[in-house]
Design brief:
The protein is mostly helical. Among the domains are: 198-239 and 242-286; 289-448, no CATH class. Helices cover 72% and strands 0% of the residues. It has 20 helices and no strands. The protein has helices at 2-19, 26-40, 51-77, 87-100, 121-134, 143-167, 175-183, 186-192, 198-217, 223-239, 242-258, 266-286, 289-307, 310-317, 320-333, 339-342, 351-373, 382-396, 408-420, 424-448. Helix 6 packs antiparallel against helix 7 (175-183). The chain is globular.
């Protein structure tokens, strides 16, 4: 443990030097204790004995990915933001606005309009607190929240690993498969390398689920669980208000599934499930979520049609019924579409193209996992229900590449379950079939475009 802390500190110092700001070192003092906390929750008799070494490797890989993209944006646009400035740039403008006005609470923003990021106030407030902490060491740099995203992503990987071993009796050691598949999943790294709220929101969601998963496993739900859940729901509401419904639904589904498999007081289970259900229903009607979902479906479909062609245009241009919803599900499962690998020989050599190729390779890896993921349909579990819930919401509303990061922890857990119950021959057969189908699909795609 001491060696892990020292090496992490050295990595933090090296990247602080690279970015010329001691403020960057502040991420080490925020992120490393978080990683240690979630590491200590793991069942040590089941995880890889060298997991701390692998956490260090993932940490370094993540920071390197952030740095490469940061400096590539500087080279391309003169500023370290996607396309010279999208949501990540607007979030930074909003952060500076709140810092200048000395606003550091979500409650101070109720009823006010926040320029640049009115629907993301909670994340901007988080950035304000990050700024204040960084200034204790030096100056704030826009790379700091990106490096914190890497810590959040690694923490999500550790939490997911813990949930896998708590819920499934697996004799094989899948700790490195689960950890690395989440911690260095290419699209997750790409999203983390921007000042986006998605990884922060994912972290809060997974922490909330983990709180209840741990509590139910230990048959000990206390008032502390309720208070902590309420606080996380508060943070989620202000960061992305739709997530409060998703988080509460996740807890409700967990209660219904898991309390039937472990010794748990039936009255307490029914009371908690009823309370969470009533709150979730209240949230749906008070926030007009149904109308919002319909509105998002229409606006994002129009947005996608205006910005896409070829396969994307065909998918989003199809009527939802009778077959459009199937197309959306299928397209979501292979998103972000691996076009950079298919057209690799027509690309010029650059760091940006290399990053896009890596992200596409991540999608191909995801496609290879699909047979094992859907093997869980034979025996429905909580993680499959949650995965399908999130997939449906993304597929029928935003379909934004950033939002797919919410799926990855549950996708990897489900894939590990499927792999654990598969023979070596079955695994090889699935990989061969996916390869053949993938090659045929690539040929058809090239012909069509």
């Amino acid at each position: 443990m001491a060696l892990f802390i020292v090496v992490s500190l050295i990595i933090g110092i090296l990247f602080s030097i690279a970015f010329g700001s001691l403020g960057v070192l502040s991420t080490t003092f925020l992120g490393v204790p978080m990683l240690i906390f979630f590491y200590k929750l793991l069942p040590k008799d089941k995880v890889n004995p060298n997991l701390l070494l692998h956490i260090t490797i993932a940490q370094f890989v993540g920071f390197a990915f952030v740095s490469i993209l940061y400096f590539e944006y500087l080279r391309m646009y003169g500023v370290p933001f996607m396309s010279g400035g999208t949501d990540d740039y607007r979030f930074e403008l909003a952060r500076k606005l709140l810092v200048d006005e000395e606003i550091s609470s979500n409650l101070q923003l109720i009823g006010t309009y926040l320029e640049y990021a009115n629907n993301s106030k909670g994340y901007i407030v988080f950035l304000v607190w990050v700024t204040r902490f960084a200034e204790l060491f030096g100056s704030y740099d826009t790379v700091i929240p990106r490096m914190l995203n890497i810590y959040f992503l690694n923490s999500v990987a550790l939490i997911s690993l813990g949930m896998f071993y708590r819920n499934f009796d697996c004799k094989k050691n899948f700790s490195l498969f689960i950890f690395y598949s989440i911690a260095i999943f290419p699209n997750a790294l790409f999203i983390s390398a921007h000042v986006f709220r998605d990884v922060y929101v994912l972290f809060l969601l997974v922490v909330m689920i983990n709180i209840w998963d741990l509590g139910i496993t230990r048959n000990r739900i206390t008032f502390f669980h309720v208070i902590l859940t309420a606080y996380i729901a508060y943070l989620l509401y202000f960061a992305r208000f739709e997530m409060i419904f998703i988080s509460l639904s996740s807890v409700m589904i967990l209660m219904l599934f898991k309390t039937r498999k472990v010794p748990f007081n039936r009255l307490k289970r029914n009371l908690i499930t009823l309370a969470v259900s009533l709150i979730a229903i209240y949230v749906v009607f008070s926030l007009d979520l149904v109308d919002i979902i319909i509105s998002r479906f229409s606006s994002y479909t129009d947005y996608r049609l205006n910005r896409s062609d070829g396969l994307s245009n065909f998918v989003f241009g199809s009527d939802l019924f009778p077959f459009g919803f199937i197309l959306r599900y299928g397209y979501a499962l292979i998103s972000p579409f691996p076009s950079y690998v298919i057209g690799i020989f027509s690309l010029r050599l650059s760091a940006m193209n290399l990053i896009n190729i890596i992200v596409s390779i991540g999608t191909i890896y995801q496609i290879y996992l699909l047979p094992f993921l859907f093997k869980n349909i034979k025996k429905v579990n909580y993680f499959l229900i949650l995965f399908l819930l999130l997939l449906s919401i993304i597929a029928f509303t935003t379909f934004t590449f950033r939002h797919f990061v919410l799926l990855y922890p549950f996708m990897i857990i489900l894939s590990a379950i499927g792999l654990a119950s598969s023979s070596q021959k079955a695994i090889i057969n699935n990989l061969v079939v996916v390869t053949i189908i993938g090659m045929l699909g690539a040929v058809i795609y090239v012909i069509l475009i």
